[in-house]
Amino acid sequence: MTQSGWQRRIARAEKLGAQCSYAAEILLFYTAIARFQEKLAAEITHGSRSVSFMEPLPPKMIGRFADFLALVERTGPEPLRKAARDLQGTGASSQVERLTGFWRQEGQSATNCGTHEFFARAFLQPYAASLREASEFRWTGPTPFVCPFCKQKPGVGVLRPLGEGGQRSLICSFCLAEWEFRRIVCPGCGEEDHAKLPVYTAEDFEHVRVEACDSCWMYIKTVDMTKSGLAEPVVDEMASIPLDIWAQERGYAKLQVNLLQL
After folding, report:
1. How far apart are CA 256 and CA 127, in angstroms?
2. What is the pLDDT of residue 54?
3. What residue spans define the domains of the chain?
4. What does the DSSP assignment read for 132-162?
């Protein structure tokens, strides 16, 4: 039986959590979030009608936000538990306003905005992914630097086997769309000079690399599937925390924080 994307990510998070003690806590939390997302995705129905980011969110789905806050309060790290309690105290109308605001901006400014962004991004991600999967949207023209579907920034890169080498793609930090991207180009500023695009790897993470830019001083991590075909890019990116620490100690800023705001 073929696993869904949610199931593959959950299984990978469980495996890496058991192998990597330094990432066990965050991957355990991610697993709880992903299980909720999987169930929410199964509940979402929008038929064949085209749905845009400017339309109201389904009331039935919004009704599940209280359950999501309760989950985070039970299983999240303390800063997110406190934030969940704070959000629970703001009332339903304020919560809907927060979710709608994030949804309608289509990622234009929804980047590294702090703890409270986590709630809207993680809760709405299954809906965004569902719309993207059901749409017939296809991008044409120049390779986009942001997601061609929801306009959010990429959260991780991936190298997939192609001939004797690898084809580079980017994966959206929100709707999880994947699109091809040129190998020697910074997805932050468009720098093309390979001398200004250093790549860093570490022995403990042979299949994950830091792709930095000495023009804009941003970086993105890329998961090399030619070295580990069992990897799940979204999960392996989260698990390789030491690479983020290493990059940030050297002055690079992350192009887009991941779902857990890391």
Report:
1. 20
2. 64
3. 5-134, 154-254
4. HHH------SSPPSS-TTT-PPEEEEEEEEE
